[in-house]
Amino acid sequence: MASTVNVFVSSPDTRSERKYDLNLTVGQLKNKLELITGIPPQNQSIAVYASDEAPEPVVTLSDDNRPLGFYGVRDWQVLKVTDLNPAASFTGQLTDTSQVDKFELSETEYAQRQDTVLAYKQRNKIGRFAEKPTEESVVAEPVEITVGARCEVESAEEDFRKRGTVRYVGPTEFAKGVWVGIEYDEPIGKNDGSVKGKRYFECKPNCGVFVKPDRVKVGDFPVEEINFDDDEEI
Asked: What is the pLDDT of residues 129-139, one digit of tens each?
């Protein structure tokens, strides 16, 4: 027959697993439980439960002179220790946050403190305080294209040559980088030299177009009649 028992000890402030000799008297047990629960022996009431969820105790250890074995305490039962005079031992006050004074600050007071997470983020420019990257100014790419030069624009259509005269070379407000403004010989363009209300050069309606420099070839290109459009242009 087993001479010891493994149990759970539960009190308002503690919960632990313990092993006791079944020959230990209830009075001796209370002396040991004081070190665990902080409840003086004379203020302890010990009830034995089959589990934490059990609604009613199996037995109450009411006689300090009886051994645990007398009450039939079994392995893994729960010894629930109640403090009969909690005002004297402050039982439960360690876990009762309702008795704790709250430290509160207004948003203004919090923002003025220098020892807060908010202040740390502000000093180190973290999160919403991080510096927003400034838009890099457009660096003009080296372009060897001269205003007034005759040119031909690259086309996806075989044997389709779109020719015209360079009217503008430089940055624009509608997109980053350097653009070449061209006046086509025929009305196969997209504009009249202006985009979104900003004028870059003068030409007839639908004869103007803006393309990237790498699509432009400068040279001695005579005028040719062409009659269709290229949707890849701006």
From this structure: 887 765 554 45
* CA dist., res. 50 & res. 55, Å (int): 9
The span from the CA of 8 to the CA of 51, in Å, is 9
Predicted TM-score (pTM) of the model is: 0.41
Cα-based distances in Å from 9 to 49, 71, 130:
10, 16, 52
Beta pairing, strands 4-10 & 15-21: antiparallel
Q: Which pair of tokens denotes residue 80? A: 């629930």
Q: For residue 117, what are its two tokens? A: 């997470």
Q: Are the CB atoms for 219 and 186 separated by under 8 Å?
A: no
The residue that leads in pLDDT, 168 or 97, is: 168
What's the CATH number of domain 4-83, 3.40.50.1820, 3.90.180.10, 3.10.20.90, 3.40.50.300? 3.10.20.90
Sheet architecture: strand order including 208-211:
208-211, 178-184, 162-171, 150-153, 216-218
Q: Is 149-218 assigned to CATH 4.10.400.10?
A: no
